[in-house]
Structure formats: structure tokens, C-alpha cells
Amino acid sequence: MRKILVPTDFSPVSKNSLIYGLNLYKNTDTEFDVIHVFHPSFDPVQPEILDSSLGLENVKRESMDSLINSIMPLAKESGVKVNSMIEVGFTIEKIVEMSKDYDLIIMGSTGSNSLINKIFGGISSDVAAKAECPVLLVPGKVRFKSMDKIIYACDFDGIDERILKKVVDFAKRYNASIRFVHIQNKDKEFQFTLSDDLQVNYSVSIVEADSVREGISEYIKDEGANLVIMATKQRSFWEKIIHKSHTKEFAMTTDVPLLVYHEK
Q1: Which of 7, 28, 46, 68 is deepest in the core (most CB within 10 A)?
Q2: CA–CA separation, 225 vs 238, rounded Å?
Q3: Residue 236's pLDDT is what?
Q4: pLDDT tens digits, residue range 92-151?
Q5: Which CATH superfamily hosts domain 2-139?
Q6: How many Å apart are CA 253 and CA 107, to the nearest integer?
Q7: DSSP class of residue 47?
Q8: Domain spans of the chain?
């Protein structure tokens, strides 16, 4: 059975990520654990009950019950199991700690009009960089419609066979094509080969750009996609993508979920 962790802050964005996940994994052997993590010493939304962690937890439980009740018809239709939990602690640390026990984390993301803020907002970006399992980041206004085209953007000398198998199996499930995209500096040469027996529709593109951010941005803008996958051997690559001091805002649409893998 596949186990998926879905953090929520009870916002429309986080609810949308849960709905997206339920549709994405419809009619599969999947169990969703919806989690809300709070720290009782600081809750700016409800300052009147800061002195009562028990009262705050009761409020959180009511919000969780309301969320679960609202999505239960879809969960039943999707044929998956949904559990809920309330945990006390620091959100990022708790989710990262729990990630080793899950196959995937699905999180909503939002922000200003720039993609770098929409997709890589604080908690989501930190979890994506530190989690022990893959993380799927779902922009707040995305609705699951189809999974026809997957872009696999890699920083590699070769592709991790373990991740490749998961990506291919995922593509087969939805009868989707895979576009393998490598971003390189214009002054570099790169040769890339894939096995001929992948048994999935795929293509390989070498994109010349001054940075990974710009190359991926322009490629997705031109080609479109239902999902972007990034896999990297070193966390430093991921940190370059999300660190704001290196950011030149992405000039692309904001309706593409991003699945992050870290190669072993």
C-alpha cells in the first residue's frame, strides 16, 4: 500500500492539494494521512487562546474534522483511505521527521504572482529540500484534469535507475509521455542516452540556457506540461533553484505541479 502524507493549515490551498491527490491516486491502493502541526506558544490567527494548549488543540481538531468531512465523499469515490492527525511541534521539523515513513508528501503552495513564490514558498520549499521521500508541490489554483505530458528535468551525468522506474511506472498508469530535459550552458557539450526498452512514449531535449531556472522555465512555457519532475544528486542543486538570492523570477504559467526527488 502506498502511504501519502498531506500537511494542512486548513487553508483553501492546502485543501486543494488534498483534493488533487485524491483525484491523482483514484482507484489505487493508497492511504492518505492528513496532518496539521501547530506550536501552542504562537498562533496569530487565534491569540485569545494562546494560554490554553488544550483549548487550541480542540479548535484544531474541529477544523480537521470539518476538512475531513468535506472531502470524505471524494475519498470514498476515489476508493482510498483517509486518516487525520494533530501534532504539536514545529511544522517543518515534524514533517521532515515523519517523511521517512511515507512514499510521498503532497503540499499546497501559494504566494505572490511570481512562480518562485507560488511554488517555492517557505514551508513547502524547506520540506521539499529536506524530506526523506518525494514531495509533490501543487499550486493553489490547479485542478486535476489529466496526466498526458510529464517533463523530467534532471541535473545529471546519468539518471538514477530507481527514480526512472518510478517515473516510467507513473507515466504508464496515465498513458502519459515523458520529456527528458537537460539544461546546459551554451559552452558545454553533453551526451545523453536512454534504454530503448522503457516501454513508454518519451523524447529527450537538450536546452541551452545560462541557468537551470531559466532553461526549465522557458521549456515549460513553450511545451506545456501536466507535471514537472526534478531529480538531483546533490541538495545544492535544489537549493540553487529555491534560494531567493539566486532568483531571477520564472516567466512561466503557474499551473504546473512539481514533483521533487533526491537521488541517493
Answers
A1: 7
A2: 20
A3: 53
A4: 999 999 999 999 999 987 644 434 444 445 677 778 778 999 999 898 889 998 899 999
A5: HUPs (3.40.50.620)
A6: 19
A7: G
A8: 2-139, 149-262
Q: Is 122 helix (H, G, I), strand (E, B) or coil?
A: helix
258-262 β-sheet, strand order: 81-88, 30-38, 2-7, 104-109, 135-139, 258-262, 227-232, 149-155, 177-184, 202-208
User: H or E element: which one contains 7?
Assistant: strand 2-7
Looking up cell 501519502, which residue turns up? 4
Locate 157 and state its grid cell. Answer: 551525468
Identical fold between 2-139 and 149-262: yes
Q: Give which of 103, 223, 243, 242 is closest to 152, Cα–Cα.
A: 223
Do residues 104 and 91 touch, judged by C-beta distance below 8 A? no
For 149-262, the fitting CATH number among 2.40.50.140, 3.40.50.620, 1.10.287.3510, 3.40.50.170 is 3.40.50.620
Report mean pLDDT in 10-residue bins for the chain, 264 residues.
95 94 96 92 54 73 97 97 94 94 90 42 74 90 91 72 88 93 68 67 82 77 87 58 39 67 76
Kindly state the cell numbers that stand for 102: 511515507
Phi-psi region of 150 (alpha: psi -120 to 50; beta: other; left: phi over 0): beta
Cell of 156: 545529471
E strands, 127-264, are 135-139, 149-155, 177-184, 202-208, 227-232, 258-262
